[in-house]
Amino acid sequence: MKKMIITCAVCGAETTREHNPNLPLTPLEIADATYDAYKAGASIVHLHVRDENGGPTQDPEVFKEAIRLIRERCDIVIEITTGGAVGMTDDERVAVIEEIQPEMASLDCGTVNFGDEYIVNTLPTMRRFAKEMIKHNVRPTLECFDISHVAAADILIKEGLLKPPYHYGFVMNVPAAIPYDIELLNLLVSRIPEGAHWTVMGVGRACLPAHYGAYAIGNGFIRVGFEDNVYYEKGVLADSNAQLVERTAKLSRDAGYEIATPADVREILQLKGIK
User: Fold this and answer.
1) How far is CA 17 from CA 13, 22, 27, 54, 182, in A?
2) CB 174 within 8 A of CB 143
3) What is the distance between the alpha carbons of residues 94 and 82, in angstroms, rounded to a whole number?
4) Phi-psi region for residue 225, left (φ > 0), alpha (ψ -120 to 50) or beta?
């Protein structure tokens, strides 16, 4: 039976409690939300953390505290963000790789419009981040917000800065970036190397359609969580990240998938495991 890897992005950098009052912010809240998502079927947590005022931070010490609390609860695979937040420097964003040396980390594969803002990821930035990940045996998720980002990842592969098995993350429906529809998802999937893995991330109202796209194409994984979408259905806020994961797990089982465990993820993506 095919296995479905469910990633949960529990808080992100831009979501606030004005969007959903159930958003976890402190390391303890993030750890509890991660554990609840794990129990509902998530095998990877995409990890952002927040400062004491609830704003995004790349402070390695805050990450370490959140990770410590998560590890007290479960063995979920931890994927740390290096995307950070709008306005952060490369130095801020990449420091967590050296400091924490996680099993996985996101690697943004190009500059992207982010609503009225934008996040800069030049090719030199991508090379620097990829080199740090190779140095510390961190498996990158190659986050692509546009078809050109797949081409940028190809450059890193040709330069030997990425090693298989490759894992792509297709972030779709960010305002002013690539929208979600099945034709565009098919196009993205058609441009990645043979045998590469991919996860689709449908932002906002694209959340459920992206699920169905992954099932229709047949070999993709799914990410959910408050970073991407705070609603359970139109006009109804989700009670928790776990509620979103639980629905994804049910839909995936109904579509003929077995829900992957953290051990499955470590085998499929050839991760180094927990220290």
Assistant:
1) 12, 7, 16, 9, 31
2) no
3) 6
4) left
Whether residue 77 contacts residue 262, with contact meaning beta carbons closer than 8 Å, is answered with yes
What does the pLDDT look like over 106-134, one tens digit per residue? 999 999 988 888 889 999 999 999 999 99
DSSP alpha helix (H) spans, the chain: 27-40, 60-73, 90-100, 123-135, 147-158, 182-190, 207-217, 241-254, 262-268
Dig out the tokens for 116 from the structure.
């009225």
User: Residues 122, 160: contact at Cβ < 8 Å?
Assistant: no
Please state, in angstroms and rounded to a whole number, the distance separating the CA atoms of residues 261 and 81: 21
Taking each helix axis as running N to C, give the angle between helix 207-217 and helix 241-254, from 0 to 180 degrees, rounded to the nearest 10: 30
Q: What is the per-residue pLDDT across 226-258, written as a single tens digit (0 to 9) for each?
A: 999 999 999 999 999 999 999 999 999 999 999
Q: Are 6 and 41 in contact (CB under 8 A)?
A: yes
Nearest to 26 by CA among 101, 17, 262: 17
Q: How many residues does the chain have?
A: 275
Look at residue 45 and give its three-state secondary structure: strand
